[in-house]
């Protein structure tokens, strides 16, 4: 068994596709129309055969209260690895991304948290050394 | 002399070591989410307080006026307010009644 896909709920798949590709730099792997929504998955640039990130419509009524509560307390829905959190923070800030946690060193790992504009907080992290 | 209102809450808030660490961390960086405070307590201080426990500590600090909560959009941030601490300094280091001058 191996991990091949991990999913996030997004309020608007079109908006999410734009944010995750144009701002974050991921690459669309599948975008298959499925009724009014799509089977939409992304991969990391340079690792197109690696794990996929699914962006699924946040349709279920339980999703909103759950995500609002996480959002209020600043809890990220998932975490992405970056080379340098400080550099990525500056890059995303310049693109208008809103952070709820500035880069913070936590022992060997440095983390920061931003809003994906589609209902989730996302953490980025980098390991020293 | 009767104590001013809020004094009991102030000392109760300061009596707990976890709450003192929360204040320490807010000195290092003001405007933190509950998530950031929780991760700081665990990763920097090795404390194993649950999210719920930290949330309750923050309520006590807020009641004492030491922490201010501000909503910005969909997020909730915590700010440090050191103003109530002045009461402690005033009470014991700045006596209300100066000592009578010595008679010459």
Automatic annotation (TrEMBL), chain A:
Coiled coil: none annotated. Residues 1-127 form the VOC domain. It holds the Pfam family Glyoxalase. This is VOC family protein. SUPFAM superfamilies: Glyoxalase/Bleomycin resistance protein/Dihydroxybiphenyl dioxygenase. InterPro entries: Glyas_Bleomycin-R_OHBP_Dase, Glyas_Fos-R_dOase_dom, VOC_core. Gene3D superfamilies: 2,3-Dihydroxybiphenyl 1,2-Dioxygenase, domain 1 (3.10.180.10). It comes from the Bacteria.
Automatic annotation (TrEMBL), chain B:
This is Metalloregulator ArsR/SmtB family transcription factor. InterPro entries: ArsR-like_HTH, HTH_ArsR_DNA-bd_dom, HTH_MetalResp_TranReg, WH-like_DNA-bd_sf, WH_DNA-bd_sf. It comes from Rhodococcus sovatensis. Keywords: DNA-binding, Transcription, Transcription regulation. Pfam families: HTH_20. CDD domains: HTH_ARSR. SMART domains: HTH_ARSR. PANTHER family: TRANSCRIPTIONAL REGULATOR, ARSR FAMILY, TRANSCRIPTIONAL REPRESSOR SDPR. Residues 1-100 form the HTH arsR-type domain. SUPFAM superfamilies: Winged helix' DNA-binding domain.
């Amino acid at each position: 068994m191996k991990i091949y896909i991990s999913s996030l709920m997004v309020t608007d798949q079109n908006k999410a596709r734009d944010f995750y590709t144009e701002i974050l730099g991921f690459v669309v792997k599948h975008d298959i129309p499925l009724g009014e929504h799509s089977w939409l998955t992304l991969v990391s640039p340079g690792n197109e055969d690696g794990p996929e990130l699914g962006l699924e419509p946040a349709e279920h009524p339980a999703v909103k209260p759950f995500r609002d509560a996480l959002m209020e307390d600043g809890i990220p829905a998932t975490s992405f690895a970056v080379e340098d959190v400080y550099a990525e923070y500056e890059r995303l800030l310049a693109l208008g991304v809103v952070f709820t946690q500035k880069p913070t060193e936590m022992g060997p790992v440095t983390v920061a948290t931003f809003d994906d504009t589609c209902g989730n907080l996302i953490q980025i992290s980098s390991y020293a050394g | 002399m009767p104590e001013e209102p809020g004094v009991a809450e102030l000392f109760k808030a300061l009596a707990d070591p976890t709450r003192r660490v929360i204040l320490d961390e807010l000195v290092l960086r003001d405007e933190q989410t509950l998530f950031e405070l929780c991760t700081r307590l665990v990763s920097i201080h090795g404390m194993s307080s649950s999210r719920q426990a930290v949330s309750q500590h923050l309520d006590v600090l807020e009641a004492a006026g030491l922490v201010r909560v501000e909503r910005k959009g969909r997020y909730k941030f915590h700010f440090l307010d050191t103003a109530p601490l002045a009461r402690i300094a005033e009470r014991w280091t700045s006596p209300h009644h100066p000592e009578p001058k010595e008679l010459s």
